[in-house]
Every structure is written in C-alpha cells, then in structure tokens.
Amino acid sequence: MSNPAAKNRFRKITLLTVVLLFLTILAGGVVRSTGSGMGCPDWPKCFGGYVPPTEVSQLPKDYKEKYADKRQEKNQRFAKTLDVFGYSDLARRIREDRSILVPEEFNAAKTWTEYVNRLVGAITGIFLILSAVFSFALWANNKLITILSVFNVFLVGFQGWLGSIVVSTNLVAWIVTVHMLLALAIVAISITAYHLAKTIGRPPLHTKGIVKVMAFIALLLSVVQITIGTEVREKIDSVSSHFLGGYRETWVQHAGDIFIDHRNLALLVLIVNIMLYALLRKGFYRHSVHQQLMSFSFLIIMLQIGTGIALSYLALPPFAQAAHILLASLIFGAQYYLILNFYRSVNGQGVRK
Questions:
Q1: Cis peptide bond N-terminal to 44, omega within 30
Q2: Own/partner pairs for 311-318, CB < 8 Å, 24+ apart?
Q3: Which alpha helices (DSSP H) does the chain contain, by range?
Q4: I want to staple 26 with a disulfide (CB 3.0 to 4.6 A). Which of 49, 122, 141, 326 is the partner?
Q5: Section 189-213 average pLDDT
C-alpha cells in the first residue's frame, strides 16, 4: 500500500498539472487571437535559438528563405506520412499549396507571444512527467492511475509533434481542430488520474441513469460546440485573408452558416445544462461536489455567453477570443469531472436518500 504522503504528493502535482493545462490552452488562445502562430517559424527552437531575437537585425538576411526551405522539407515528410495512412488527396494538396511556404515578416511581439506559449507548454510537459513519475507510488492502489499518467506523457509528446506540423503548414485548418481536441483529451486524462487518486477507498455512488445520460449529452454538446468553434475561427481567418486584414467589423457577417450554427447550438447547450442542474438540485445534497461543479459550470457558461456577445458585436476583440477558448475548455473540464463524481464522489455528500 502507498503511504498517505505519496498519495497527497501525486494529487497536488496532478492538480497543478491540470491548472497548467488550462493555462496552456489560454496561451494558445492568445496566440490564435493575435495571429502569432507563425511568430516562431521553426520548432522546437525559435529562429534557431532557445531565446528568440527582439529585432530583425539579429537575424540573417536570408532568414525568410532559410525557414521556408526547412518547412518545405518537413511538409514533404508529413505528406509522405499522410500517403501511408491513405490521405493521398490531402498530401497532394499540401505538396501543391505554395501559400503555406510564404514567410511572414519578423514581428517581435508575435514572436515573443508564441515563445511564451511554448514556454508554458514546456513547463506543463515537465509537470506531466512529474505526475507520471509520482504515480508509481499509487501502483498498488490503482494501476490505472499510473497507466493513464504515463500514457499522457506520450500523448503530450504527440501533441508537441502535431504542434510542429501546425507551424510547418502555416496552421492548416483541420490540424488546428485536431490539436484542440487532443488538448481536451490530455486534460480529461489528467482529471481522471486526479479523481482516481482522490477517491481511493471510497464506495461507489449510485446515481440515477437519467442524470448520467443528461450529463453525457451536455458533455457531448460541449465537445461539438468546441469543434464547431474552431471551424468558425478557421472561417474567420479565411475572411480576414480575403479582406487583407481590413473591414474587421464585417468578418462575422461574412462567416456564413457555420457561425449561425455555433450561435444556435449555444442555446441548446444552455437548455441542456439547465435541465441537468434541475436534476442535480433534486437528487443531490446542496453542498455536494455535484451541485458545486454545476454551479461553477453555470457561472462559466454565463461568462462564455458574454464573450460570445462581445465577439459578435465588438468586431472580434482578441481578449474575448482567448477568453472564449479558455471558458469553453473549463466548461468541458467541469462537466467531465462531474461525470466522474457520479461514480465515486470526492466528498462525503452525494445522492439524497
């Protein structure tokens, strides 16, 4: 059996890891909203160094051609990988798309925004490794804790590789969506490991089937909404390119049906969560973790609606874009943790008798 100190250490490290994962998502949202994704044209270094330049004079005169050639080589390797897995049409488009090889002018603000994003990601990766190492102390209690923690390290390594592809292909649309969904998967695994460690020795909770079903529907809607949200952002990027960055106040109206679908689905998300909240108020004690998580979810949903309104009517301010991504991720995390607590609760209060 593992000692209490080892359990407590793992819980603290994993909880901090979850916080850092959300911070990483926020940093990524800032990069996306400020158009800083190509601030560092190479990966994992930035302009060939571990600390990026602050002025263009610090770069060689041929830096644009140099990094364009490197991206060309990486894209060719990525296209070959796609061929192996049967995505020949996509591989052909990547090979033939010359626009992804057009370098951007050096911009210190964008470069350092992307660099900070990578630093946050690197620190998060270190804590994921620490979480995996400390999880072995709980092997005797629940082997799944260790398995998930170790698997997450490999998953975040794949996420890092995918991040390099995002840079290499100048943010090819579908890769950005996969990148976001994979980030949510990493968050979910860390939350699962934390919950398993918190509920060691606790009895199972008997939650009504209708409550579980409603919670799963709410979680599924959140994932769909996040997926559509990334596609909305990709459409906005296309509109922005069409207008050469101008006429920002018209971007939303030119986004088309996908923006309307995203907005309408938000109403369905709200309705389903209201229904779930009603079920929880009826079936769980007031101070149970379930009602606390649902109250937190509602607060975040309200803030999410507020940022959505700001995006729609204030010409897509960058701060609202980054906040919108973070809030959506927090809703997902809270809903997922709520579902885990339907099976074993982290506190003593739960289902009403």
A1: yes
A2: 311/252, 312/252, 312/263, 315/248, 315/249, 315/251, 315/252, 316/236, 316/248, 316/251, 316/252, 318/30, 318/33, 318/34
A3: 4-34, 63-84, 88-96, 108-135, 143-168, 173-198, 209-242, 257-283, 289-313, 318-341
A4: 326
A5: 93
End-to-end CA distance of the chain: 33
| Exposure of 176 in the CB half-sphere (CA atoms within 13 A) | 22
Query: Which residue is it, tokens 């290499």?
Result: 168
97 pLDDT tier (thresholds 50, 70, 90): confident
pLDDT at residue 352 is higher than 60: no
Same structural domain, 183 and 214: no
Query: Which band of pLDDT confidence, cut at 50, 70 and 90, is reported for residue 43?
Result: confident
Could you tell me the pLDDT band of residue 247, with boundaries at 50, 70 and 90? confident
**Distance between CA 316 and CA 309 in Å, rounded?**
9
| 96-105 b/e (C-beta count within 10 Å ≥ 16 → b) | eeeebeeebe
Query: Last residue of a domain, which of 170, 201, 232?
Result: 201
Domain that holds residue 257: 205-353
**Are 264 and 181 in a shared domain?**
no
Residue 170 has pLDDT above 70, yes or no: no
Do residues 74 and 30 both lie within one domain? yes
- Cα 231 from Cα 233, distance rounded (Å): 5
| Residue 166 shares a structural domain with residue 244 | no
How many structural domains comprise the chain?
2
For residue 58 the two structure tokens come to 């610090």
| CB-count exposure of residue 237 (10 Å: 0-12, 13-18, 19+) | middle
